[in-house]
Amino acid sequence: MQITPTYWSRRLFIQSLSAATAGLLLRPLAANATPGGLDPKITDIVRATIGIDTHNHIDVPLLSEELPGPDIALASEMQKSGLSAICMTFAVDYVKLTYEGQAYERFLTGLKAMDEVLQKML
User: CA–CA separation, 35 vs 3, rounded Å?
Assistant: First the structure.
């Protein structure tokens, strides 16, 4: 039996990428289908593991007129997800910047909103 090498085409690449993405998307559904919920051993492993979310989308206000922002139960959500820490990024230019220094103002507003969320955790 002779093995022929696989030559990648754009079509084969897209098909493989689509299949891998579908597998990743379906995996969480299969995990939720376990009868009786999760094994307590899994919960213990997650609690003992350090997990850091380096790309999150906590929606805090960046415009001062939107303060104080939504009530976020950050502590319980982090505990539920098994995260130990999160890194924040503020997309200060999601609304067009119209004057110099506005990005910094929005950043400070985001920090103020996040400070309020963190204060509730204490």
Answer: 43
Q: Is 24 within the bounds of a domain? A: no
Identity of residue 57 = H
Per-residue model confidence (pLDDT) at position 29: 56
Contact between residue 27 and residue 75 where contact means Cβ atoms under 8 Å apart: no
Report the Cα 121 to chain-centroid distance in Å. Answer: 20
Q: How many separate domains does the chain show?
A: 1
CA dist 56 and 48 (Å) reads 21
pLDDT at 88: 81
Do the domain assignments include residue 62?
yes
Domain that holds residue 88: 39-121
pTM: 0.56
Closest CA to 117 of 77, 85, 78, 72: 72
